């Protein structure tokens, strides 16, 4: 299937949106990259490079930055949403889409107010459009550099999932399909929370044993929550679950890991976020997951401990102690 003359809109010119725009531009078709910050678009146009979020990767001629949302969406058969999850509602609420446009959700989080996944927001804001979640172990800098990786395109619409998988497939970007959109999106959201926990353990100087235990138990929490919300357990043991968790919780490129690492080293959350200069989705998502745990009466101790740590209710040392204190023996 050829998409040579198709037009694609990527909404969000952070590191992830820019990396996906670069990937999609490889087939030679027109890709328009929009951002809600006019200064960011002006900088992209002037430098032909995202010097702020993804330096070292020049924009090809067919990748066209624009500050006009309507211009970005004009004729687009594929709309990739790569804004922070809390902004999906605002962006799609303003969007006028081509009637047959596919909406691809590349945002990874939960709305902190409504507790909706990005695809749920898209279905509400743009009813009638195919909605596909794209997730997996995909660090933006590595995708832009052509490091081999894999992702999952998930939708209730099997044809739409396959269509997007074909659109994104590249020699270094293998895209699989899934019918478990909820599970794929939830894996992408919760792994950010768990990556913060992994960063805290590293920042405190604990060893691999501690981190492996945290991530393994956290993965169980991810699956528990996912099944409660209608996802499939096996999804969390694939690319969008354990795969994404392995990449995000281990890499120094991960913003969420860096948040946790900074907290473990004694830095304040405000100072860490100011240093990052970008959204770390795990911060608001942790509070959303904690609220879901209470709402659904689920035991999610790792995620809820991260939420308490981010809210300043406990210290990093107290958080680890809470999770490792002596308890009665349980079946794993």
Automatic annotation (TrEMBL):
In this chain, NADPH is annotated as bound at 15-16, 36, 53, 108, 140, 255, 279, 281
Instruction: Give the GO biological process terms.
Output: carbohydrate metabolic process; glycerol-3-phosphate biosynthetic process; glycerol-3-phosphate catabolic process; glycerophospholipid metabolic process; phospholipid biosynthetic process
Q: What is its EC number?
A: 1.1.1.94
Task: Give the family this protein belongs to, as stated in its UniProt record.
Answer: Belongs to the NAD-dependent glycerol-3-phosphate dehydrogenase family.
Please name the NCBIfam families in this protein's record. PRK00094.1-2, PRK00094.1-4
- What is the stated purpose of this protein? Catalyzes the reduction of the glycolytic intermediate dihydroxyacetone phosphate (DHAP) to sn-glycerol 3-phosphate (G3P), the key precursor for phospholipid synthesis.
According to UniProt, the name of this protein is: Glycerol-3-phosphate dehydrogenase [NAD(P)+]
State the taxonomy lineage.
Answer: Bacteria, Bacillati, Armatimonadota, Armatimonadia, Armatimonadales
The encoding gene is gpsA
């Amino acid at each position: 299937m050829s998409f040579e003359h198709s037009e694609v809109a990527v909404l969000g010119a952070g590191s992830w949106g820019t990396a996906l725009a670069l990937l999609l531009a490889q087939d030679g078709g027109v890709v328009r990259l929009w951002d809600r910050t006019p200064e960011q678009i002006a900088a992209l146009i002037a430098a032909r490079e995202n010097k702020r979020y993804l330096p070292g990767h020049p924009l090809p001629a067919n990748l066209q930055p624009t500050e006009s949302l309507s211009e970005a969406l004009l004729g687009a058969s594929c709309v990739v949403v790569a804004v922070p999850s809390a902004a999906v509602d605002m962006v799609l609420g303003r969007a006028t889409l081509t009637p047959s446009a596919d909406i691809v959700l590349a945002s990874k989080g939960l709305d902190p107010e409504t507790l909706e996944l990005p695809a749920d927001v898209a279905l509400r804001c743009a009813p009638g459009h195919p909605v596909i979640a794209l997730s997996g172990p995909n660090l933006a800098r590595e995708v832009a550099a052509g490091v081999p990786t894999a992702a999952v395109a998930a939708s209730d619409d099997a044809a739409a999932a396959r269509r997007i998988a074909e659109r994104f497939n590249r020699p270094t970007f293998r895209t699989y399909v899934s019918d478990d959109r909820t599970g794929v999106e939830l894996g992408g959201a919760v792994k950010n929370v768990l990556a913060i926990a992994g960063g805290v353990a590293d920042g405190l100087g604990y060893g691999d044993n501690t981190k492996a235990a945290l991530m393994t138990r956290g993965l169980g929490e991810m699956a528990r929550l996912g099944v409660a919300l209608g996802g499939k357990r096996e999804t969390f043991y694939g690319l969008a679950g354990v795969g994404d968790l392995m990449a995000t919780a281990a890499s120094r490129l991960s913003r969420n890991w860096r948040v946790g690492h900074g907290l473990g080293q004694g830095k304040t959350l405000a100072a860490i976020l100011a240093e990052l200069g970008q959204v770390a989705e795990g911060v608001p998502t942790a509070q959303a997951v904690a609220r879901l745990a209470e709402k659904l009466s689920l035991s999610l101790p790792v995620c809820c401990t991260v939420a308490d740590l981010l809210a300043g209710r406990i210290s990093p040392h107290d958080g680890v102690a809470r999770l490792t204190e002596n308890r009665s023996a349980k079946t794993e």
